[in-house]
Specification:
The protein is α/β, with parallel strands linked by helices. It has 2 domains: 193 residues, 3-Layer(aba) Sandwich (Rossmann fold), CATH 3.40.50.2020; 243 residues, TIM Barrel. The protein contains 16 helices and 16 strands. Bound molecules: 6-sulfanyluridine-5'-phosphate.
Length: 459
């Protein structure tokens, strides 16, 4: 199994914890919201979760496993399947007819039952559940919990003599997300404040709309991208990672009406010929009104980048509306791109990428100060004046086995305030590329619209 931290990050991607502003049942405002139910929808994660939970426990102690309904039921079932400890099911309410049983399954009085819970907060609902299980003459000595919200529940149960085993707690989880750049130091401090029982102030955090961004846009390419997005009701950039001119042109023709830009890796086209590849591509782009984004990821000194940009067979300067570039060569290395827009690579989507929080901070300083830069590629939020381009978006997969890590449009618009999604294999590998482009366009647009609304309220 992978490390506990890696495992948590996989779980996190399913949307189990959201950060923002949520009103709890009690009326208290919380800076985070936890819902572990999505874990049951990923069989591999559920199986791994069961094993992580079992690993923490003295298994010889238990005759039975019981999940607290409903969220922990699939978890308890998976633990039972992995450990061969029999499962019993506790009803939420006793049946009003027939046996009126509260607990279903085969058990004998006096047996020791392990309780499984998804999230522990104050611990009050667990105390009630334990009482109901004990009423059936079963013993409860241990409770295993996936996530401890650290709001007194563990202490309450321990004071009553129960052992509580927790896989993750919220402080540890925040530490992991702070390390990966998902949470800022400020957000973590606010969460800690909340956990200490303080009433916390929320700053209104609403993402700017495309109209607002358009008003503030300085660069002509930023304006064009935002205008195209509003006109086509699309925030989709299709990545055309195909290797022949014919495939490239056919793809551009199919997806053209639904995208705002086509992203190329022009150096992977095996039969590249300026006249046969670029001239028709430009015509298709003009016809369907999309921009051309060459994902060259320049990464050299200014003089070399200038040659790579203007010369060779590709002559990128003659046709691309905007290009991607690393900023590792420093501020002046970007000066040569003065007739196009530059999208700075701030953070990469692949596993183990070296674009750490401190790298990103330095990269942003260059990106924010250079007039050629219109935005950045990142898996984290960017300052509002930059356009955020997010690759690593796929509705069907969570990775590609080669290090790529995927998120859904919903996640990137809501949590990162992404402006444009970049989708490659989700579209060009699909049997019907046009239908897939329409799906991503619709999902992306709806996710953008939803991200303009205030955060959901937890009931
Ligand atoms: O961090 C990054 C930056 C980029 S530009 N991660 C990425 O995946 N990309 C590019 O986006 C990558 O080179 C590829 O062309 C596209 C993602 O393709 P997919 O097939 O994984 O959707």
């Amino acid at each position: 199994m992978e490390s506990k931290k890696e495992f948590f990050l996989e779980c996190y991607k399913l949307g189990i914890i959201k950060f923002g502003r949520f009103t709890l049942k009690s009326g208290i405002e919380s800076p985070f919201y936890v819902d572990l139910r999505p874990l049951a929808s990923d069989p591999k994660i559920l199986k791994n979760l069961a094993n992580y939970l079992l690993e923490m426990l003295p298994l010889d102690n238990f005759d039975l496993i019981c999940g607290v309904p409903y969220a922990a039921l699939p978890m308890a079932t998976a633990m039972s399947l992995e450990s061969y400890i029999p499962l019993i099911i506790k009803r939420k309410e006793a049946k009003s007819y027939g046996t009126k049983k509260l607990i279903e399954g085969i058990y004998q009085k006096g047996q020791n039952c392990l309780l499984v819970e998804d999230v522990i907060t104050s611990g009050k609902s667990l105390v009630e559940t334990i009482a109901e299980v004990e009423q059936e003459d079963l013993k409860v000595s241990d409770i295993v919990v996936v996530l401890d919200r650290e709001q007194g529940g563990k202490q309450l149960l321990e004071s009553k003599g129960y052992r509580v085993h927790t896989l993750f707690n919220i402080s540890e989880v925040c530490g992991i997300l702070q390390e990966t750049g998902e949470l800022s130091d400020e957000e973590v401090a606010r969460i800690q404040d909340f956990l200490q029982g303080n009433h916390i102030q929320f700053a209104e955090e609403i993402r700017p709309s495309y109209e607002q961004k358009l008003q503030n846009a300085q660069h002509s390419v930023s304006k064009k991208l935002l205008e195209t997005a509003l006109m086509k009701k699309s925030n989709l950039i299709a990545s055309a990672d195909v290797t022949t001119t014919q495939e490239l042109l056919a793809f551009a023709e199919k997806v053209g009406p639904h995208i705002i830009a086509l992203k190329t890796h022009i150096d992977i086209i095996s039969d590249f010929d300026y006249e046969k590849t670029i001239t028709p591509l430009k015509e298709i782009a003009a016809k369907h009104q999309f921009l051309l984004m060459e994902d060259r990821k320049f990464a050299d000194i200014g003089n070399t980048q200038e040659l790579q940009f203007t010369s060779g067979v590709f002559r990128i300067t003659d046709w691309a509306d905007f290009v991607t570039s690393q900023v590792i060569g420093g501020f002046e290395s970007l000066d040569c791109f003065n007739n196009v827009g530059v999208v700075a690579i701030v953070g990469m989507s692949s596993k183990g990428a070296l674009t750490t929080a401190s790298y990103r901070e330095e990269a942003l300083k260059v990106a924010q100060s250079h007039p050629n830069v219109i935005g950045g590629v990142s898996q984290n939020k960017l300052p509002e004046e930059l356009l955020l381009f997010t690759p690593g978006v796929n509705l069907a997969d969570s990775g590609d086995g080669k290090g790529q890590q995927y998120n859904t449009p919903e996640h990137v618009f809501k949590t990162l305030h992404t402006d444009f999604i970049i989708v490659g294999r989700g579209i060009y590998k699909s049997e019907d590329a046009e239908a897939a482009a329409i799906t991503y366009k619709t999902e992306g647009w709806n996710a953008y619209i939803n991200s303009l609304e205030k955060k959901a309220i937890q009931s």
